[in-house]
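for the writeup, i need someone to sanity check this before i put it in the appendix. the sequnce is what the collaborator sent (i think, or maybe the updated version? ugh). structure was predicted straight from it, no edits. if anything looks off just tell me and ill rerun, i have time this weekend
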Amino acid sequence: MKALLIVFINLYFITVSYASENIVLAKAHQIESVILDEQRSFSVYLPPSYNKNSNKVYPVIYLLDGDQTHLKAVAGLVEALSTQRLEQQIQQAIIVAIPNSKNAIRERDFTPTNVNWTFNGKLLEKFENIGNAANYSAFFEKELVPLINKNYRASTKRVLIGESFGGLFASYVLLTNHALFTDYLIIDATYLWDNNFLNRYFHEKQLKNKPLNGNVYFTFANNAKAFGEIGETNYQWGLAFAEKLKAHSSDNLVINQRYFEDETHGTVAALSWYYGLKSLLNR
């Protein structure tokens, strides 16, 4: 499966020239964010049929950590899986890839609290000027998503993809602003953050008694060998978080998950995109 997947992606990565005209994957844009007080970049990929049918609307994938490498990978996979050659396993989709700020480390926008990162009383990493997740969520809600809806034929289906700290942010958005996105692909998120923040927040805010909406696909990597107790604890806290959401009484909250025993935190993304998008964008 992994070898076949790599072949598919490579086929769609190649920039082919016909009649001296290069295929353009996506267009880069800038937005002046009042909320974040900075200029942010984003790129928009449009599906092959976008300009052929002016009445058709498309789901939108919002890709965190959306640098060129991630954009090429996800766009190639989405385009491949939505073709007739691969039996149209998923819907075609618009992709909005948002790279991280040039002015700050990525943890600034992905973390919900401004604390040192510790585990069992030991400092894992010390950050400065972090805990900006509430503002970053507001940036999507009030600035970026309205801009995309205004300028592109976007349907009401919005998929948020986040990995590691990006998965932490996606989980935070699900808990605090569940109407912003309809679907979530949460890839091996940083559940260790702030002493089990996500599970504590769920309990402290009594979210089991409040509405939650979303179609969520969790993926987990096998990190016990590489990271020992830290990796195992992150996995256990992630499972506990997924189980809390599974047990929620809302009919509008759908939870699926997959554990990749042969993948680590650094290798799990590609298979997560493949299986997650097949689940969230199935026809």
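The chain has nine helices and twelve strands. The chain has a mean pLDDT of 92.
thx in advance!!
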